[in-house]
Amino acid sequence: LAKTTQPISMDSYEGQEVNITCSHNNIATNDYITWYQQFPSQGPRFIIQGYKTKVTNEVASLFIPADRKSSTLSLPRVSLSDTAVYYCLADYNQGGKLIFGQGTELSVKP
Amino acid sequence: GAVVSQHPSRVICKSGTSVKIECRSLDFQATTMFWYRQFPKKSLMLMATSNEGSKATYEQGVEKDKFLINHASLTLSTLTVTSAHPEDSSFYICSASRGGQLQGEQFFGPGTRLTVL
Question: Are A87 and B103 a contacting pair at CB < 8 A?
């Protein structure tokens, strides 16, 4: 399972775009990159997943360069409700286990 | 779709008692379920992987006799904390995987807050 490294915390303001970068230098060929969001005292919520290039859904975009050694989660126009911990995971996940790193605590201010 | 529930959401018990936590996949069949625990301001720590009809696989350092896991059906897994002590107080979260569809998605339950007095 690839080890991931991401910033411990980030601050932003409402309406800004937030980019959280995660490094996964030893990512394997079959590994996918997945991001989860967690609010206090709740279970994590799936945000987005990708393998390479760019993936976009209704809440976020995920940018993965060609070497796949890092990835960037982009949250457009954040609001106060986006204040949460964001986890980046990289592993081959066909129903396989997920190992969570420390996550990035995002604080969105008015 | 893909909803996972946990029961109870919160439990307080006396030291030495056992507590059972249920994890259910409400609208899909989960061949694999996972149990995590999370301490305040810390990340989720995987405790065990539970496959329907077989014994759970525990992560290193997790006592299988202390944390009993049963996965009797494709929609239900239970975690029993036996002879609970204050140090077992934590937030326990389960997740369920459909496997093979949207690759890599695991669906998490809302968590159970266990407080051992």
Answer: no
> DSSP string covering chain A, please?
----B--SEEEEETT--EEEEEE-TT--TT-EEEEEEE-TTS--EEEEEESSEEEE-SS-EEEE-TT-SEEEEEESS--GGG-EEEEEEEE--SS--------EEEEEE-
CA A63/CA A101 separation, integer angstroms: 19
Nearest CA in chain A to B10: A41
CB A28 within 8 A of CB A94: no
Cis upstream peptide for B8 (omega within 30°): yes
Instruction: Let me know: does A108 contact A12? Beta carbons within 8 Å.
Output: yes
Query: What pLDDT score does B99 carry?
Result: 65
Q: Which of A41, A87, A95 sits opposite B32 (nearest CB)?
A: A95
List pLDDT tens digits, range B14-64: 999 999 999 999 988 888 899 999 999 899 999 999 888 888 999 999 999
Distance, in Å, from the CA atom of A63 to the CA atom of A47, rounded to the nearest integer, reads 13
Which of A14, A16, A21, A53 lies closest to A35, judged by CA? A21
